[in-house]
Amino acid sequence: MNLHPKDGIRAYEDAYETLAEHLGIDPKTERQIEFDVSDRKFMEAYFEYLLNPMEKQGVDFWWLDWQQTGHTKVEGYDTLWMLNHCHYVDSAKDGNRPLTFSRYAGIGSHRYQVGFSGDSATTWETLDFQPYFTSTASNVGYSWWSHDIGGHHQGIRDDELYARWVQYGVFSPINRLHCTDNPFCHKEPWTYNKDAEAVATKFLRLRHKLVPYLFTMMYRNTEDGIPLIRPLYHKYPDMDGNDKYKNEYLFGNDFIISPITQKGDYVSNMGEAPLWLPEGKFVDFFNGRIYDGGRELKVYRTLDEMPVFAKIGSIIPLCADTNQNGTDNPSSIELLVFGGKNFEIHF
Fewer CB within 10 A of the end CB, N or C, for the chain? Predict the structure, then answer.
């Protein structure tokens, strides 16, 4: 559930009377209970009487929204940072694995929350920035970023932009489609034209098929500190053209991704992505074409494909049940093998 707690607790809220009495406020005055993250007594009551009862009703974790300014008696106190800390610690009660979802509160925030980058403008410029932003965040250990996939507000309505954004979301840490309440802004695939709807449907189902691979790479992140998404220079420090290929990134141990983040050519109906492939051979995930590495190139893709390359020898576990909805261990898996010359599999 989404929270804006710094607005305090109002008299019409169910927990108001209990909280007011606990904090020494006469409930009959209906005076607003001010939010103060620096007040230990208030924060303990905030969890005990306001949030914990809702968790017993079924809330799994909280999404802290815009909280960056004010509402504390201590000058210079970072409201959001302390909220993230308190929510994370409280979510670990009863032996739970701690989880909270929130905005960025400065370097070091990655030790607490899954990141939320805020309300994205629905523009090609925003999409073009997100792959670079997400991969380079790994340089400071911030590997869990979530964006408003498809854009949140403002900007334009563009079916092609929506489809390309969903493609990027599938190959990002958290694939969360989200937008404001607006008659011109939707995230359901069926509200776009048939081409965009088909692309979004195809890629969202692919995201589900990738759950076994994603789980493996995210577990590696937990155990070894290696993020799911990283800039190429993490693995290939001698590469040239870091600025030229800022949107290209590693996706787990096996993939190189270069999402299309610019509007496609009007005549060919293809999008373009510049990229660099390291030495070796790589297979296009969608069409099976084999590419020689050790070079720079530009690739062009129709709306139903994006540039995703697997190195020769990769074996990718996929969920075989495409009708299953959820993230449970799949009852059956499919192995996607990217073979090539002189490549053998041993079981």
Answer: C
Cα distances (Å, whole numbers) of residue 23 to 6, 16, 32, 61, 73: 17, 10, 12, 25, 16
- Beta bridge pairs of residue 230: 250
Closest CA to 285 of 167, 166, 127: 167
Q: Give the pLDDT band of residue 79 (cuts 50, 70, 90).
A: confident
Length of the chain measured in residues: 347
Calculate what percentage of the chain has a pLDDT beyond 70: 96
Helix (H) or strand (E) holding 103: strand 101-103
CA torsion 25-30-36-42 (nearest 10°) is 40
Q: Do 135 and 200 have their domain in common?
A: yes
Task: Read off the tokens for 224.
Answer: 């070894």
Is residue 345 a part of any domain in this protein?
Answer: no
Q: With beta carbons less than 8 A apart as the criterion, state whether 320 and 330 touch.
A: yes
Instruction: Give Cα separations from 194 to 149, 179, 224, 265, 333 (angstroms).
Output: 19, 20, 43, 19, 30
**Six-digit token pair at 310?**
């697997």
Side by side, which strands form the sheet with 2-3? 2-3, 63-64, 101-103, 114-116, 145-146
Report if residue 129 sits inside a domain.
yes
Q: Say if residue 182's pLDDT is above 50.
A: yes
How many whole angstroms separate alpha carbon 23 and alpha carbon 26? 9
- Give the range of the structural domain holding residue 152, as residue numbers without chain letter: 2-213
CATH number of the domain that residue 81 is part of: 3.20.20.80
Query: In this structure, are residues 333 and 317 in contact, taking their beta carbons and an 8 Å threshold?
Result: yes
- For 314, the 3-state DSSP assignment is coil
